[in-house]
Amino acid sequence: MSTLTQAVRASSTGDRGKRASRVRSDRSRALPAYYWMVWPAVIAFAAFHTVPVVIGIFFSFTNYAGYGAWNFVGVSNYINLFQDDRVLQAYGFSFLFAIVATVLTNVFSLAIALGLNAKIKARNFWRGVYFVPYILAILVIGYVFQFFFSNSLPKILAGIPLFADNILTNETWAWTAIVALAVWQACAFAIIIYLSGLQTIPAELYEASALDGASPWRQFRSITFPLIGAFFTINVVLSLKGFLQVFDPIVALTNGGPGTSTESVTLLIFRGGFSGGEFAYQTANAVIFFIVITVVSLFQFRVLQRREADF
C-alpha cells in the first residue's frame, strides 16, 4: 500500500472521528434543552395528579370527614365498603350500565361506520354530522334529553304504558334513558375509530372475494372484522372504561334517582366525599374503583388481543 493511500485513509478516518465527536457534542448540548421542555410537564403532572393520589390513599386509612380532626383507622374503611349495600348497588348499576352501553355503542358505531365508508352521496358531510355529538357539552345535551324523556316522549308514545309517564321516574327503567344518552354521544368517537380501521383494508381483498362469490356477510366475517380487530379492541376497552366512570349523563337526567336506583360509583364518591362527610370513606372507595377499572381493562386487553391472534 502506497504512502499516499495510507495518508488518505488516515485523513478520512480522522474526519469521521471528528464528525462523530461533533455529533456527540451537539447531542450533549441539546440534552439540557430537551430536559427543560420535559420537566415542566413532569412537575405539573406530579403536582396535579400524582401528589393528590398519594394524599388520597393516605387519607383512605383515616376517618377524615373532609374537615376537622382525624385519626388512623387502618383498613376499616375498605372492610366496610364490602358490607355497604349502597356501595354494592352502585357497583352493580355501574357494571350493568357499562356492559349494555359498551355492546350497543360498538354495534351501532360499527354499523354506521360501514355505511359511512361505502360509496354514498355527501359522504364527508354525513361523517361530520355523526361526529357532532362528540363535541357537544354532555350536560347541555343531557338537559335536552331530560326534556324529551319527561315531556315529549310521554305525549308521542302515550299509548304505551312504559312511556305514558316520565320514564326517568321509573325505578326499573330509568337507567335505559341514561344508556340512550350515553350511547348517542359515545358512538361519535367510536365511529371515527372504526372508519380509520376500515380505510386500512385494501379494496383488492373485497374484489377478489366478490369474484369467488363471497356474500357481503361473508366478506364482513372473513375480511372486515378480522382486519379491524385492533380497532375493535381499542373501542371496547375505551368504551367500557368510560362507561364505568359515568357521571354527567346521570347528573343531567336523574341525579341518581329515583331513590338511588341510578346512582353510579362515581356519583356516590362525589356525593359522599364532597358533601356527605365521608371524605376518607369514599376515598377508599375511589382506590378500590381504580383497581377494579385497571384489572378489567387489562383483562379486556388480554382476551381481545388473544382473539386478534386467533384471526
Write the layout of secondary structure elements.
Layout: H1 3-59, H2 76-81, H3 85-117, H4 123-135, H5 138-156, H6 161-164, H7 174-198, H8 203-211, H9 216-227, H10 229-244, H11 248-253, H12 265-274, H13 279-310
Helix pairs in contact: 3-7, 3-10, 4-7, 7-10, 10-13, 12-13
The number of helical elements comes to 13
Rg, alpha carbons: 28 Å
Which structural class is indicated by helix and strand composition?
A: mainly alpha
Strand content: under 5%
Average of pLDDT? 87
Helix content range: over 70%
| Biggest beta-sheet profile | none
Return residue spans where pLDDT drops below 50 for at least 5 consecutive residues: 4-8
In a nutshell, what does this entry contain?
With 311 residues, the protein is mainly α. It contains 13 helices and no strands.
Describe the structure.
This protein is mainly α and 311 residues long. The protein is 78% helix and 0% strand. The longest helix is centred in the N-terminal third of the chain and has 57 residues. About 2% of the residues have low confidence.
List keywords for this structure.
13 helices; mainly alpha; 311 residues
